[in-house]
């Protein structure tokens, strides 16, 4: 699914069949739920759940991390769990077993 407009607060995008790409930002209070990976080419301020259909290999990519919640295949991190030095950075999240991993994209 390709979304070419910002995802506003209160909106929920649900696409269990595959990846979701947002060309813009995801506002605080918005959520994206994808069966595959999620790509956000803008600020990610809301909640993102990837790999919801049991796809542990799904990833989450964003250009500017400010997320409330990140989840992959049922494993999650809240804003309080995310390292402060990652805020505002371009990053990707993935799972290795049951461990969350994060890497810089810049």
Question: What would your notes on this structure say?
Answer:
- There is one protein chain.
- The chain is globular.
- The chain is 0% helix and 47% strand.
- A hairpin with a 2-residue loop joins strand 10 (91-96) and strand 11.
- It is mainly β.
- The strands form two sheets. Strands 1-3-5-7-10-11 form a six-stranded mixed beta sheet, with no helix packed on it.
- The chain has a single domain, classed as Pectate Lyase C-like (3 Solenoid), CATH 2.160.20.
Strand composition percent? over 45%
**Topology-level CATH name:** Pectate Lyase C-like
Q: Encode the helix/strand succession as letters.
A: EEEEEEEEEEE
Tell me the strand order in the biggest sheet. Answer: 1-3-5-7-10-11
Main sheet?
6 strands, mixed
Query: Which architecture per CATH?
Result: 3 Solenoid
Shape: globular
The assigned structural class equals: mainly beta
Approximate helicity band = under 10%
Question: Any low-confidence stretches, pLDDT <50, length ≥5?
Answer: none
Arithmetic mean of pLDDT: 94
Question: What's the N-to-C terminus distance?
Answer: 25 Å
Rg: 12 Å
Q: Regarding CATH, which class? A: Mainly Beta
| Total E-strand runs | 11
The tally of structural domains comes to 1
Count of runs of 4 or more consecutive helical residues:
0
């Amino acid at each position: 699914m390709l979304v070419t407009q910002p995802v506003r607060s209160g909106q929920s995008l649900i696409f269990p069949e595959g990846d979701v790409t947002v060309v813009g930002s995801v506002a605080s209070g918005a959520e994206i739920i994808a069966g595959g990976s999620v790509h956000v080419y803008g600020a990610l301020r809301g909640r993102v759940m990837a790999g919801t259909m049991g796809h542990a290999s799904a990833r989450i990519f964003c250009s500017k991390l400010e997320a409330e919640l990140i989840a992959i295949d049922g494993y999650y991190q809240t804003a309080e769990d995310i390292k402060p030095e990652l805020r505002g950075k371009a990053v990707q999240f993935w799972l290795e077993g049951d461990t969350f991993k994060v890497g810089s994209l810049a």
